[in-house]
Predict the 3D structure of the following.
Amino acid sequence: IPDAPDEPDIVQNETVYMTPENIGNYFKDNNLESDYDNRVFVFEGSFNNLGKMSINAQNITIKGDGAVFKNTAFDICQDNVSMSNLKFDLDCDLSDNDGAVILFNTNNLYLDNLDISYNVPLNTEAYAICGVGNTPSSRNLRITNSRINFEGHNDNVNVYNCAVKIINYDDSVIENNTITTSLPLKDVNHGAHGTSLDSDFVLSVGVENSDNLKFINNTIISEVNYRQDSLYPTLDAFLISKCDNALIENNSIYMS
């Protein structure tokens, strides 16, 4: 069997080779349905301005072979999905995907070796990676070996800009990532019961209600790009809330 078929939409041993020319054959109306459960998808080429792409197939692997997604985001809706070796370049409003480049509410999600660059439009809610699991919690999220460059500009409105936001995900592993953010200073909105992720409008990494978290060997670089006229201008690089039995180890955090 050759490494890749001559025609990219040929299926070989449940592997689909996806290109800009044939992606519409599988993501019909931007939606990958359960007809494609248990497949491997190899993306090749540049995928431009596709907007929100929903994944409603489970037990799938998405790999990149030189794949670049320009102003294209994913909503992962089913369990047992892995994504690796993909590059994202965005500068658009992603409000139709809750502001996120990668949005999810699933179990057993693996994100590895991703490059995400997001220059957020002015006064827009935005995230590079955002997952809010089921109550009481989803399980088994892994974010590894990835690089995120996130520039937020929620200068004049109280909407959230956060590179990585994770809520309700027990047994998560976030390891060997470099997360670089440029964000404005904002007042912290302390609630009646103290500070939570909802308190911070700007944040590099936030994790909440995620027991047994492992946050290991990550680098966070946070710089200020705007100071508003407020009493307590604040930028947090890493906020962890209500995460029992967490392991936070060998991380480097720089702020300027």
Q: What stands out?
A: The longest strand covers residues 109-119.
